[in-house]
Amino acid sequence: MESSTADTGVTDSLLWKARFGEVVRGMVVDFAPRLFAVVQEYGDRVDGRVAAWGMAFPDHAEVVSVEGGLRMTLGEVDSVLPAFATREGVSASVVWLPAFNARLTEPVDVVDDVEDETEPWW
């Protein structure tokens, strides 16, 4: 049985939608920011708390305190530490969450260049 041009168009459209969804999901995984917590430690490991959450992008980091009253945009992740080590006996550290993408085991420094491909991405 032969398929009509209309049927082929519908099939191609459905295949494109599925492929486009795969491309978008791959892009989201590849370019997701690396997540981290800012942890405050009181004394010599007497107590501690998560004081803020952050996202590390290739060229900056975004941080928001758990109370929501402090938001920061920073050039480097470690620049957040002085804001959370404000009292004597209180230190701050960055704790990286496990990366769900193996490519993101370390904060991303640069975006990969797209290599020339012999076949179109679609």
Q: What is the helix/strand order?
A: HEEEEHE
Structural class comes to: alpha+beta
Q: What is the number of beta strands?
A: 5
Mean pLDDT: 79
The CA-CA distance between the termini, in Å, is 28 Å
What order do the strands of the largest sheet run in, or round the barrel if closed?
4-3-2-1-5
The helicity comes to 25-40%
- Counting structural domains, the number is 2
List the helices and strands and how they pair.
Elements: H1 5-31, E1 34-42, E2 47-56, E3 61-65, E4 71-74, H2 81-84, E5 90-96
Antiparallel strand pairs: 1-2, 1-5, 2-3, 3-4
Description:
The structure is a single chain. This protein has helices at 5-31, 81-84; strands at residues 34-42, 47-56, 61-65, 71-74, 90-96. By secondary structure, it is α+β, with helices and mostly antiparallel strands. It has two domains: 1-31; 33-102, no CATH class. Strands 4-3-2-1-5 form a five-stranded antiparallel beta sheet. A hairpin with a 4-residue loop joins strand 1 and strand 2. The longest helix has 27 residues, at 5-31. It starts with a helix and ends in a 26-residue tail after the last strand.
Output the keywords.
122 residues; alpha+beta; 2 domains; 2 helices; 5 strands; elongated; disordered C terminus
In short, what is this structure?
With 122 residues, this protein is of the alpha+beta class. It is built from two helices and five strands. Strands 4-3-2-1-5 form a five-stranded antiparallel β-sheet.
